Amino acid sequence: MDQKGLLIVISGPSGAGKGTICKSLLNANKDIKISVSATTRSPRKGEVEGKNYYFISKEQFEEMLQEDALLEYAKVYENYYGTPKNYVLENLDSGNDVLLEIDIVGALQVKEKFKDGIFIFILPPSLEELKNRIVGRGTESDKDIEIRYGCAIEEIEQVIKYDYAVINDDIERATRDVEAIIKAEKCKVSRMHNNIKSIL
Amino acid sequence: MDQKGLLIVISGPSGAGKGTICKSLLNANKDIKISVSATTRSPRKGEVEGKNYYFISKEQFEEMLQEDALLEYAKVYENYYGTPKNYVLENLDSGNDVLLEIDIVGALQVKEKFKDGIFIFILPPSLEELKNRIVGRGTESDKDIEIRYGCAIEEIEQVIKYDYAVINDDIERATRDVEAIIKAEKCKVSRMHNNIKSIL
Known about the structure:
Two copies of one chain form a homodimer. Chain A is α/β, with parallel strands linked by helices. Chain A has a domain at 7-35 and 96-199: 3-Layer(aba) Sandwich (Rossmann fold). Chain A is built from eight helices and nine strands. Chain A has helices spanning 18-28, 58-66, 85-93, 104-113, 127-137, 142-156, 171-186, 193-199; strands at residues 7-11, 33-34, 37-39, 53-55, 70-76, 79-84, 98-101, 118-123, 164-167. In chain A, the strands form two sheets. Chain A has a five-stranded parallel sheet, with helices on both faces. A four-stranded mixed sheet of chain A has the order 4-3-6-5. In chain A, helix 1 packs across helix 7 (171-186) and helix 5 packs antiparallel against helix 6 (142-156). The radius of gyration of chain A is 17 Å and the shape is globular. The interface between A and B is medium-sized, with 34 and 34 residues. Chains A, B: It is found in: Cytoplasm. Chains A, B: Its EC number is 2.7.4.8. Chains A, B: Essential for recycling GMP and indirectly, cGMP. Chains A, B: Belongs to the guanylate kinase family. Chains A, B: Its main location: cytoplasm.
């Protein structure tokens, strides 16, 4: 297969479970590369530098912005989040599939640059369940919970800008949906020119 | 799920193995309805009326044509083939997925009417393997084999008019590809409006 790697963008509102689905996807598909974002927010309990995020200062982040070293970035809840460009581009060029787990604002920036990417929106089964999950996480203040939940409806309306939506009613089932989407995208005629040429 | 059923069109050159893949797909997915074509050609050994085809006379076929009772039809190797319209439309309206296994000429007619259908082209792993399979089937005369193989290259070039291509190097693997395509298509945002509305 000569085709370049796929850019897989997984996005959705806080509490929809995009992080859990990405973890489950990566566990079952060791060949997919995960892009680690940079952020200026403080680490949550248990988060590891270079695995969950690159935790950097506001000054460092703004330097990366000036150097055009970010694929996308967003200021969400007073913190910067961004995707370092090099890692993604190098892996795609080498034919590796790259997974981005990013917020909606960032995802839509990437979509403008990567028409060929696969944009998947993770939906909660209901708004009630979404709130339960944000509360249940226990990592945020009451104020943060209200801010996140308040944005959810507005965020979910952005789903129409995505290619695919996966309802996260069950992690295993939702992960199988994402895997099917990736497999199907690789069967798109527009991505198979080299295979077809080699048959003929 | 309020969404209507999916129209799944599986097509490709003779010998690519579309029949075997369809059989394998239906075995594993009992809820998919298969549309049985009508034809004026003679039954091959083992073919069953109403299961493989409706074997009808030329006069009967032309009557259906006049009554606009066919979704598509084609004259291939001097015989008519066509898809009775009622069965397909009724099942799609009831929310059932319907599978059409048809020749390329017919598939492209369906594509003009059903923009929403999923058009999957089954490719052989190589032209050599394609010829081996046509010969190995042992149901056709030497002349028929030459006619079918001679058309193969021209037919394979039609793949660019399809949405997806699946290489049939292994029946099981190819069937999993088709299943992934169906699952992914159901996750398309354009097909999920009702689900999204019910969440909001």
